[in-house]
Design goal:
The complex is a heterodimer of chains A (344) and B (488). Chain A is α/β, with parallel strands linked by helices and 344 residues long. Chain A has helices at 3-32, 47-61, 72-82, 96-104, 113-116, 175-188, 190-203, 210-218, 229-237, 274-285, 287-295, 331-340; strands at 39-43, 65-69, 90-92, 108-109, 131-142, 168-170, 204-206, 224-228, 247-249, 260-268. Chain B is mainly alpha-helical and 488 residues long. In chain B, helix 17 (386-394) runs antiparallel to helix 18. Chain A: One of its GO terms (biological process) is iron ion transport.
């Protein structure tokens, strides 16, 4: 075959491919792609909790929802990149820094006053652009066979000391951990945080996530781990397979290690279903909506007025959390400090 | 098309000037990742070569019993995705992690990429050359080194190249084993900042490594011809009798199979039987369906899209053809997330209606897996004598008819092998799928990843098992396509 004919043939094949591609994907799109008529929720929150909220909301109001799952930081940044054309109507996070990122990009609509009134004043920012939907506490999980209670550090800051090197772990790549560091940055300042991060780099094992961290402590591969409380309580309520050999240590005393992180919910300014989106936020912060935090075994703290948290948890106000403004936690700064420390 | 993501990544990395990008490259973390990535690359490539060539020689060139069985058993590990393999190992051996763990898991997952082409070639070698070497006074070892190795070199290099490119893009298996490489670091960057400049800079370094690997392979391949001139009678190879070494050799093959197939099978079986301990029941039906349809669509599209380029490369060795081929390889060594992010940037910026649609996902798969189809299709086209098409033309067929009637049927088998490779790759793809899949679409791989991220082995096992079952028939197709091709 001559060269020219080969080219013609190539062109024909390419055209057929392109046509086939669009036809095939059309048929699949009918079943899988984004349905613009539904309320679209971008959720970094737990899948079973979001699922439960979505299902109950749909049953009560008849408004159909679809949920896209992701992680705090990446999903927040994704919404920023999508900008005003974002398909998202509602954004739910596990921690507040990602929400602050989206708020700073000017993409959030004000939350209805009646919804804000359903949670305490300390659970929504003065900007009123988003609302707290749940809370979680930092804890130190430890294996008593590997380290005695007396030897435990008095403060989260002590973990960076050489004496604890090689004895602890954390999921440093995750948004949960970065929220803790953002609180540390707020209470201890940049110099001490940087110093602590280099202690982490040389002395800690980095795990994939909180569950992997807890399992490593449980198996004795690490003596201590920095995690959020609910992983431990959830496993204790099940078969204790991943936490049976471990105990929890609360730092209290307004230590950075006693940080309580606020999960947030918000409506996007660009939402085509703004009214429905506001209804959704109103529902999940209501007494009924907050019940899902208990029924789904999420073991997170409820933040709604009059909504009870799981009785197994130490009361939220007994944790002596540090007084940080969750609405000003600086995510990007933390990431650049962690990059400098060589963790990212 | 394949070059597009590369361009987007480079532009992004140098967005705020070369100095800034340089500052991001020149830091201790990059050195650390470089050491990890390169040691993994070197160790796994060497071990895969030893395992692949050794097993191929034992199966094809010795009188060991069970040739037909071993041919299948040693290709079958391709049906076990590497992250399923690392899941199996870490569920079996507590504390299984780091470089050693990563090398073991990736070698066991990827050695068939070497075994497959080398075995196919060894089967068809001409005994005459080896006899000549022996007659010239070389002992058996030197004969193998000077004649055997020289002859299998192109096949071996092709296989090792595939292993290397897979390693560069590997994420799931290494993340699970706590072994950070450029690809896992890029994923970390993605998680903290979605489409960050720092992530793009890492991707540019990764592209550099891929470029180096490709150049090395090109240099190592050389310009030497190893084919016979003229037809003549090829003397079938004689198989060596191993004598007393037979049990040892058999034990080696059994052990390799047990490690590569037995461990995942045992581990999956164990956790499948404990399915009741899963925190949530597996939702197999819809996941299986979306995986199957995505795999089929993407495999068809990719294979068909490969034909023109493969034709060009097989029929001419111009620098342009070589460049086309190499660019597709670089794109394939990038982790899915990088290609996905580039496509997101492009669709958000230029073709908004396509954002978060299946079309974009299929395009990403095609970019990522084109080389796999390319390798097979190119060989298939090369095996069709150009004269046949011309003969059909002289008999009155127009070019299209001649292609459809003569060339297409002849290349079909080899192309099917490419199809199988792409299908397996799509069903096990993780990071691009997580990012680009339309809202609400889950595949077996993403569902598995979700469950295994919380170390919920019982919940993850059904998805892993379904993946293996889905891929298994295709490894047969792979074997079949290869056999055919090697006989021509």
């Amino acid at each position: 075959m001559t060269r020219r004919r080969t080219m013609i043939l190539a062109a024909v094949v390419a055209t057929v491919t392109a046509l086939g591609l669009s036809a095939c994907s059309k048929s699949l799109e009918a079943t899988g792609d984004l349905d613009k008529s539904k309320l679209t929720i971008y959720s970094a929150q737990h899948e079973n909790l979001t699922e439960e909220w979505g299902r109950e909301f749909q049953d009560r109001t008849g408004i159909k929802v679809q949920i896209r799952y992701g992680d705090d930081s990446s999903m927040g940044a994704q919404i920023v990149q999508e900008g005003t054309g974002s398909p998202a109507d509602v954004f739910l996070t596990e921690n507040s820094p990602a929400m602050t990122t989206v708020q700073n990009a000017g993409l959030l609509a004000p939350v209805k006053a009646s919804t804000l009134a359903q949670v305490g004043d300390q659970y929504h920012p003065s900007s009123k652009n988003w609302v707290g939907i749940a809370a979680r506490s930092t804890v130190l999980v430890y294996n008593p066979k590997k380290i005695s209670e007396a030897q435990l550090p008095k403060s989260l800051m002590d973990l960076a000391k050489p004496e604890y090197a090689g004895k602890w772990g954390a999921a440093a790549g995750g948004a949960d951990f970065q929220a803790i560091i953002s609180a540390m940055l707020a209470t201890e300042g940049e110099a001490r945080t940087s110093q602590w991060l280099s202690g982490l780099k040389s002395g800690a094992k980095i795990y994939q996530n909180n569950i992997a961290t807890m399992k490593a402590v449980n198996a004795g591969q690490s003596a201590m781990g920095v995690i959020y409380h609910y992983y431990w309580y959830r496993d204790q309520a099940l078969d204790k397979e991943s936490s049976g050999n471990t105990k929890l240590h609360y730092f209290r005393n307004e230590d950075p290690g006693a940080f309580v992180s606020l999960s947030g919910g918000a409506v996007l300014k660009s939402s085509k279903h703004a009214a429905d989106a506001q209804k959704f936020l109103a529902f999940i912060t209501s007494k009924e909506g907050q019940k899902a935090l208990g029924t789904t075994d999420s073991k997170e703290y409820a933040v709604g007025k009059g909504a009870a948290s799981d009785p197994k948890l130490p009361p939220l106000d007994s944790l002596q959390a540090p007084k940080v403004d969750p609405f000003k936690l600086n995510g990007p700064k933390v990431i650049s400090l962690m990059t400098k420390a060589g963790i990212l | 098309m394949c070059a597009l993501p590369l361009v987007v990544v480079v532009l992004k990395a140098f967005e705020s000037g070369a100095g800034d990008a340089f500052a991001l490259i020149w830091r201790p973390r990059i050195g650390e990742l470089l050491v990890n990535t390169v040691s993994l690359l070197v160790l796994t490539c060497v071990i895969s070569t030893v395992l692949g060539v050794g097993a191929a020689w034992l199966v094809e060139r010795t009188a060991l019993p069970g040739t037909a069985f071993w041919r299948i058993a040693l290709v079958a590990p391709l049906a076990v995705p590497s992250f399923v393999n690392s899941f199996a190992w870490s569920a079996l051996v507590p504390g299984f992690e780091g470089l050693a763990g990563a090398v073991i898991v990736t070698s066991l997952s990827y050695f068939p990429f070497v075994f497959l082409p080398v075995a196919a070639l060894l089967r068809t070698l001409d005994q005459g050359l080896e006899d000549a070497a022996r007659a010239l006074g070389h002992g058996p070892w030197r004969t193998f080194a000077r004649v055997g190795l020289a002859q299998i070199r192109p096949a071996l290099l092709g296989g090792v190249l595939l292993v290397a490119l897979h390693l560069l893009a590997e994420y799931g298996a290494l993340e699970m084993l706590r072994f950070p490489t450029f690809t896992t670091a890029i994923l970390d960057q993605f998680q903290v900042a979605f489409d960050s400049r720092s992530g793009s800079v890492l991707a540019v370094v990764l592209m550099g490594i891929a470029g180096t690997v490709l150049t090395l392979e090109l240099l190592a391949r050389g310009r030497v011809r190893h084919t016979r001139v003229g037809s003549g009678a090829v003397r079938r190879v004689t198989r060596e009798h191993l004598g007393r070494a037979t049990p040892l050799a058999l034990f080696g093959l059994v052990a390799l199979t047990a490690l590569a197939l037995g461990v995942p099978a045992w581990s999956l079986g164990k956790w499948l039987s404990r399915a009741d301990q899963a925190s949530e029941p597996a939702n197999l039906g819809p996941t299986l369906w979306s995986t199957l349809s995505l795999g089929l669509i993407a495999a068809v599209v990719t294979t068909v899209a490969t034909v023109p380029a493969a034709w060009l490369i097989a029929r001419s060795r111009s620098w342009f053809a070589v460049a086309v081929e190499r660019v597709t390889y670089v794109a394939a060594s990038l982790p899915g997330v990088v290609v996905a992010l580039a496509l997101i940037t492009l669709t958000i910026g230029f073709v908004r209606p396509l954002y978060q649609t299946t079309t974009v996902l299929v395009v990403a798969y095609a970019i990522l897996f084109l080389p796999r189809a390319m390798v097979a299709t190119r060989a298939a086209i090369a095996a069709v004598p150009p004269e046949l098409g011309d003969a059909a033309r002289t008999l009155g067929d127009n070019p299209v008819r001649a292609f459809l009637r003569v060339q297409l049927p002849l290349m079909l088998r080899g192309t099917m092998a490419g199809f199988a490779l792409v299908f397996i790759a799509v069903t096990t793809e993780l990071t691009a799928t997580l990012l680009l899949a339309p809202t609400g679409t889950h595949t077996l791989a993403t569902a598995f990843w979700h469950a295994s991220a919380s170390l919920d082995y019982a919940a993850a096992a059904p998805y892993a098992a379904a993946l293996v079952v889905l891929s298994a028939p295709l490894t047969y197709l792979l074997l079949h396509g290869r056999n055919e091709e090697s006989r021509t």
